[in-house]
UniProtKB/TrEMBL annotation:
Protein name per its UniProtKB record: Uncharacterized protein
GO-annotated biological processes: ribosomal large subunit biogenesis
InterPro entries, per the entry: WD40/YVTN_repeat-like_dom_sf, WD40_repeat_dom_sf, WDR74/Nsa1
UniProt xrefs under PANTHER family: NOP SEVEN ASSOCIATED PROTEIN 1, WD REPEAT-CONTAINING PROTEIN 74
Matches recorded under Gene3D superfamilies: YVTN repeat-like/Quinoprotein amine dehydrogenase (2.130.10.10)
Cellular component aspect of the GO annotation: nucleolus; preribosome, large subunit precursor
Origin superkingdom: Eukaryota
Length: 212
């Protein structure tokens, strides 16, 4: 399907469930329609222009997430955040920004959109910090949530009543729940549970759905 590349991430379009986005190392982001047979993707991204030395920008996609039916956001192993609009006909990112300052590149991990606010996203980095970002301000940092003790491999969010919460899991073998609206940074973690093994993925079920 994607010969010669290392697949790093994949996401399903929640609005068009037949579409999946695939991010790789050393291969461009692609969008596939699972109902269409063939080896060509429905859409393929285009790399950024070469740098000042005319060298190709390296590709290291780390996570991809659908913001809506036509917009994707991507994180990279070099600290970049890129947003794409697959409808616009523009294959290069409409937004390309970075959390890193100067040459201080940091690996960015999972990224998800807020359920309650379509212009707010949650992002984790290699140190386990959770960033709350504003899409309308070029992914500017609104606040940072702390509490993880290592690299985060799983990130999700859910609502209960009028409140929204962020849940993480990773190398410290804990599942942690955060309140992103807490004014005190150190008090944002509201619950945690030790699960004995490293956590790679988290799926939050609707409240009460599996009650007997």
């Amino acid at each position: 399907m994607i010969p010669g590349s290392s697949v790093k991430c994949m996401a399903q379009n929640g609005w068009k469930r037949e579409e999946i986005a695939v991010g790789c190392k050393d291969s461009l982001l692609t969008l596939w329609d699972v109902n269409v047979q063939g080896e060509k993707p429905k859409w393929i991204a285009r790399n950024l222009p070469n740098d000042e030395l005319d060298l190709q920008i390296p590709i290291f996609d780390n996570d991809v997430h659908f913001l809506d039916a036509n917009h994707l956001v991507l994180t990279t192993g070099y600290g970049d955040i890129r947003e794409y609009d697959v409808r616009s006909g523009q294959r290069r990112p409409t937004i390309n920004t970075s959390l890193a300052k100067g040459s201080d590149k940091q690996l960015l991990g999972k990224i998800v959109r807020s359920i309650q606010n379509e212009y707010q996203v949650y992002l984790v980095n290699q140190e386990g910090h959770i960033y709350v970002l504003d899409r309308k301000k070029n992914y500017a940092v609104i606040k940072k949530l702390v509490g993880n003790r290592g690299s985060v491999r799983a990130l999700s969010c859910f609502t209960q009543g009028d409140a929204e919460y962020v849940v993480t899991g990773g190398c410290d073998r804990h599942v942690r729940v955060f309140n992103p609206n807490c004014e005190m940074q150190k008090s944002s973690e509201i619950a945690h549970a030790y699960v004995k093994q490293k956590v790679n993925s988290i799926l939050v079920a609707p409240l009460g759905k599996y009650k007997e």
